[in-house]
TrEMBL record:
This is H/ACA ribonucleoprotein complex subunit 2-like protein. Keywords: Ribonucleoprotein. Belongs to the eukaryotic ribosomal protein eL8 family. SUPFAM superfamilies: L30e-like. Transmembrane segments: none annotated. It comes from Sarcoptes scabiei (Itch mite).
């Protein structure tokens, strides 16, 4: 039985259609599988993220509760409202701002000085020293004043002479505790004042000064000699008391 050409063509078309149908069905099945996998991943990640968010919420709540507890800590009834609270080592806390340091009474400033701050200038001598510093600064700060640890040490070694004023609140004391002995060897008069800010305000500098060397000048020779004599008297009194 002979097969016509037209029937052969029809068979080819039919076979091709079946193949395409199979491909589309296979593709659909694959896409369905991928979608299901993605859905599973999304659900798992959602669950994990939910757990994490719960953990973070719990931790934030704990932190808030701790902060509230800290803020709600009540002071001991034995402490008065006007009394200054001291640290564990019974050292009073310094005033915070520069203005508070300057405006603090001279007698109260002496509570914050270090152990080695001797001989300490009295209120009247300190005023005269600050006046001397202001005069020297107005005439020539570069020529008549040596400010800071490095410059004062350098100038003393070179043999410059003058009155040396140390700050009594220098910490740590190891950085300048050797200088009084050097001053005594070189026969230089030295004295302490309570704060670094006292020296810096007298000189007209914003940065706190650890120490200053004041050189003599004709314009304030009388005041210089008066301060030097009083410093010598003070050192003699201090040495006798030892």
């Amino acid at each position: 039985m002979a097969i016509s050409i037209s029937s052969v063509k029809k068979l080819k078309k039919f076979l091709l259609r079946n193949r395409s149908m199979k491909k589309t069905r296979g593709q659909e099945e694959l896409t369905n599988v991928l979608v299901q996998k993605k859905k599973k991943k999304f659900v798992i990640t959602k669950q994990i993220m939910g757990k994490r968010s719960l953990e973070t919420d719990q931790s934030s709540e704990e932190i808030k509760s701790v902060k509230k507890h800290k803020n709600n800590v009540e002071l001991d009834e034995t402490i008065d409202a006007n009394e200054t609270i001291t640290e564990e080592n019974n050292v009073k806390s310094l005033p915070r701002t520069r203005k508070d340091l300057i405006e603090l009474p001279y007698d109260k400033k002496l509570d914050f000085v270090s152990v080695i701050a001797n001989p300490m200038a009295g209120k009247k001598l300190a005023k005269k020293l600050f006046k001397l510093m202001r005069k020297a600064s107005k005439i020539s700060r570069k020529e008549l004043l040596r400010i800071g640890l490095k410059e004062v040490q350098h100038r003393i070694r070179k043999g410059e002479r003058g009155l040396i004023v140390f700050a009594g609140d220098v910490t740590p004391i190891e950085i300048m505790c050797h200088l009084p002995a050097i001053c005594e060897e070189k026969d230089l008069s030295y004295v302490y004042v309570p704060f670094r800010t006292d020296i810096s305000t007298a000189i007209g500098v914003r940065r706190p000064a650890l120490m200053v060397l004041i050189k003599n000048h004709d314009d304030y020779n009388d005041l210089y000699q008066e301060c030097e004599n009083k410093i010598k008297e003070l050192t003699l009194e201090f040495l006798k008391s030892q």
